[in-house]
């Protein structure tokens, strides 16, 4: 359930305003985003603005997601909004980042935004130290053995949830920001590329075209047949477990087609 600025505990609002250096005059609620109870673009009396998210600490999953976003904001400054500060008080964890604006990219066939998405995934590729973020492979342990999941381990920053509503094309149409890093993890360099390939198929690409796009991103060369097979298998098992064999078949069919196209 979403919470408005005025509904936050007074000490939380006061702590935010102290860090902003002035009173909040406008709290522009943001409807997108699923992991935080409070999401808003705050404007201050001095004319400044900042993007702020907040979750009750008692929300274990939401709190963990926001801590991942804090870590990712420090690790991927080239493609992620900069984390400005974060704190905990009165049972809330609050995160502030720079405001980035733009439109959602089009992932449809022929879209001029497709190379920008490839650029963002190229620029955002960076090695991160062990322990900086959760291991991506552990996310799938319910649907695959540890041996099966070995290829899903790696030392690279993974966004973990790339789709058109977690990306913004800037006003000049020259770059893409990747936002909402709540699912960030440490894993293989090719993973976000594969996930985005599936998103392209959802927007009308066939599997062969989606794979051709993936091959424009340099890190795709690190994807092995074994790793892609493991990724496809656990993703299919996960979808089936969540929504049943019948309802998951469209998504699973895309995954299988994408996998087949990688070796065609």
Describe this structure in words.
β4 and β5 (92-97) form a beta hairpin. The relative contact order is 0.12. This protein starts with 9 loop residues before the first helix and ends with a helix. α5 (191-202) runs antiparallel to α6 (207-214). The protein folds into two domains: 5-97, Phosphorylase Kinase, domain 1, CATH 3.30.200.20; 114-262, Aminoglycoside 3'-phosphotransferase, Chain: A, domain 2. 37% of the residues lie in helices and 17% in strands. With 264 residues, it is an alpha+beta fold.
How do you describe this structure in short?
By secondary structure, the chain is α+β, with helices and mostly antiparallel strands. Helices cover 37% and strands 17% of the residues. The protein has 2 domains: 5-97, Phosphorylase Kinase, domain 1 (2-Layer Sandwich); 114-262, Aminoglycoside 3'-phosphotransferase, Chain: A, domain 2 (Alpha-Beta Complex).
């Amino acid at each position: 359930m979403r919470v408005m600025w005025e509904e936050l505990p007074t000490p939380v609002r006061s702590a935010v305003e102290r860090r902003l250096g002035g009173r909040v005059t406008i709290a522009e609620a943001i409807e997108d985003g699923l992991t935080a109870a409070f999401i808003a673009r705050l404007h201050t009396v001095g004319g400044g603005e900042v993007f702020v998210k907040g979750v009750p600490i008692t929300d274990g999953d939401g709190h963990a997601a926001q801590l991942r976003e804090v870590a990712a904001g420090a690790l991927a400054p080239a493609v992620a909004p900069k984390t400005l500060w974060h704190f905990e008080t009165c049972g809330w964890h609050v995160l502030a980042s720079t405001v980035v604006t733009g439109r959602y990219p089009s992932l449809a066939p022929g879209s001029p935004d497709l190379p920008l998405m490839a650029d963002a995934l190229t620029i955002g590729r960076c090695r991160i130290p062990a322990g900086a973020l959760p291991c991506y492979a552990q996310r799938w342990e319910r649907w695959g053995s540890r041996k099966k999941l070995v290829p899903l381990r790696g030392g690279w920053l993974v966004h973990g949830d790339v789709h058109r509503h977690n990306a913004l094309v800037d006003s000049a149409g020259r770059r893409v920001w990747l936002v909402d890093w709540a699912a960030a993890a440490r894993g293989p360099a090719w993973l976000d590329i594969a996930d985005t390939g599936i998103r392209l198929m959802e927007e009308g690409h066939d599997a062969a075209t989606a794979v051709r796009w993936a091959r424009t991103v340099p890190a795709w060369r690190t994807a092995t047949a074994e790793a892609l097979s493991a990724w496809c298998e656990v993703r299919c098992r996960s979808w089936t477990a969540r929504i049943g064999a019948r309802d998951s078949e469209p998504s699973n069919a895309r995954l299988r087609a994408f996998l087949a196209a990688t070796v065609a």
